[in-house]
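Protocol step 4 of 6: structure prediction from sequence.
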Amino acid sequence: MKKFALLSSFLLVATVASAAPAKSTHHSKSHDSAKVAAKAAAGAEVSAEVVSVDAAKKTVTFKNDKGETLTWPAEGAAVDSLKMLKAGEKVAITYSVDAAGAPKAIIAVKAAPATR
């Protein structure tokens, strides 16, 4: 009798668990995550004027087009280019973003395109 009650309880729990609605994923949220991941892989770019460079700490302080002064860490190939950056130089900074879409690190620095 105990075995029958145990088996019945198990079957009842299994039935209820399988009847529970499957966890729904919100398509736009997963789509947003995919867009952020794609943007992170491709890198975003910002025009900037170099304020200072700290090669030891691997950071660059710069002014963006909005006039904000920001300091971001550099990683990968960007670390090698820190030695060549000078204060006042106009550059294009390519950066990676985190899962929330916020800037994470500078991944490349190149001379800003010439304006006519």
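Step 5 (inspection) to follow. Helices lie at 2-19, 27-42, 77-81.
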